[in-house]
Amino acid sequence: MMMSVDTDLIRVLADPLRLKIVNLLARETLCTTHLVEETGAKQTNLSNHLRVLREAGVVETEPCGRFTYYKLRPDVIAVLAGQLAELAEQARTAADRKRPC
Fold first, then answer.
1. Exposed, middle or buried: residue 2 (CB in 10 Å: 0-12, 13-18, 19+)?
2. Where in the chain does DSSP place strands (E)?
3. Is the pLDDT of residue 1 over 70?
4. In the chain, pLDDT over 90 holds for what percent of residues?
5. Is the C-alpha dihedral spanning 50, 15, 38, 46 positive or negative?
6. Helix (H), strand (E) at residue 40
7. pLDDT (tens digit, 9 = 90+) per residue, 52-100?
8. Band of the pLDDT at 3, cuts 50, 70, 90?
């Protein structure tokens, strides 16, 4: 069965700042203040990127007093990794097949 790669999720992760956020959240749950310190991005810009990641289902929020913590949803990343692994396997098996012109 052929599975397609989630191109919307790839577009979301293709942004360098969002990918940096994802890498940081893969190591620990962080609040916006931490992410501003780690990335050097402006708070409003960072909040917009976090909204995109949240809407794509890549991160989820965890309220903690007056702060909002963000954590990565590893299941979403695992599904994408599986899709990419399947694509790589298809490419391996198709390497010797050539459609005639």
1. exposed
2. 30-31, 59-64, 67-72
3. no
4. 80
5. negative
6. none
7. 999 999 999 999 999 999 999 999 999 999 999 999 999 898 888 888 8
8. low
Nearest to 6 by CA among 100, 98, 75, 94: 75
How many whole angstroms separate alpha carbon 33 and alpha carbon 22? 15
Strand partners for 72: 59
Rounded distance between C-alpha atoms, residue 10 and residue 85, angstroms: 14
**What's the token pair of residue 87?**
């694509």
* Strand partners of residue 31: 69
Query: Do the beta carbons of residue 39 and residue 74 sit within 8 Å?
Result: no
